[in-house]
């Protein structure tokens, strides 16, 4: 009768998370993970082909869901661009607080992605997010211009740096070990600091 691998897999996942949290991806050891899970290294490879696949198993479901939620919000904004009152653009945004709440709902995953992922495809997470935000914001602004809403011309490079700075600011809550309460308060602060500045930048 085949062995039930569910329990073994669960031990591996627990051991892998502990290893990555302690050493980061680059310095994590498959041998230590196997020993902590109580199996051989060869047995470990029957569950995961390599260390990155193991790291991805801990992070990919949440990160995929994060970007799916982002896409849904993006679609809502694009639909809203046809009717939004110019005075309301950016003024009522709860995006930063909502994003921070999501991060802290899945804090262990974002600790891995933001602080332990060097050497994996997730090490560019903030850059990838900034690039996506740039693209969606530029499309949103294009739709507003089509409505005749005036706004400033600006350098793409400057906008890239501002967006990158914004996401790095959000990530600092995780990097500095803020509690959920501290992080949500900080998110409100980020909104108060960035929204007026971005309105000035775009001239809306």
Walkthrough of the structure:
This protein is elongated. The model has no long low-confidence stretch (mean pLDDT 90). It is built from nine helices and no strands. It starts with 5 loop residues before the first helix and ends with a helix. Helix 1 (6-27) runs antiparallel to helix 2 (30-37). The chain is mainly alpha-helical and 204 residues long. It has two domains: 1-48, Homeodomain-like (Arc Repressor Mutant, subunit A), CATH 1.10.10.60; 58-202. The relative contact order is 0.12. Helix content is 74%, strand content 0%.
Please give the structural blueprint.
Blueprint: H1 6-27, H2 30-37, H3 41-45, H4 51-80, H5 95-105, H6 107-115, H7 125-146, H8 156-175, H9 180-202
* Alpha-carbon Rg, integer: 21 Å
Q: What level of helicity do the residues show? A: over 70%
The overall strand count is: 0
Percentage beta strand: under 5%
**Largest sheet, if any?**
none
Indicate the overall shape.
Answer: elongated
Q: What is the arithmetic mean of pLDDT?
A: 90
Distance between the termini: 68 Å
Element-level helix/strand string:
HHHHHHHHH
Total discrete domains: 2
Task: Give me the number of helical elements.
Answer: 9
Structural class determined from secondary elements: mainly alpha
Unreliable parts:
none
């Amino acid at each position: 009768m085949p062995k039930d691998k569910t329990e073994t897999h669960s031990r591996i996942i627990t051991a892998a998370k502990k290893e990555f949290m302690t050493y980061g991806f680059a310095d994590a050891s498959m041998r230590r993970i196997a020993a902590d899970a109580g199996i051989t290294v060869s047995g470990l490879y029957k569950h995961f082909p390599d260390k990155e696949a193991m790291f991805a198993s801990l992070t990919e479901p949440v990160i995929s869901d994060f970007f799916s939620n982002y896409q849904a919000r993006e679609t809502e904004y694009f639909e809203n661009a046809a009717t939004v009152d110019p005075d309301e653009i950016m003024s009522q945004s709860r995006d930063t607080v909502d994003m921070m709440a999501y991060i802290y709902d899945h804090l262990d995953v974002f600790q891995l992605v933001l602080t332990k992922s060097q050497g994996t495809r997730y090490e560019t997470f903030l850059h990838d997010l900034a690039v996506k935000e740039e693209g969606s914001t530029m499309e949103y602004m294009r739709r507003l211009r089509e409505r005749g809403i005036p706004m400033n011309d600006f350098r793409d490079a400057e906008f890239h740096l501002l967006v990158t700075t914004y996401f790095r600011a959000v990530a600092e809550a995780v990097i500095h070990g803020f509690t959920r309460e501290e992080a949500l308060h900080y998110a409100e602060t980020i909104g108060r600091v960035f929204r007026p500045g971005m309105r000035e930048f775009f001239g809306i």
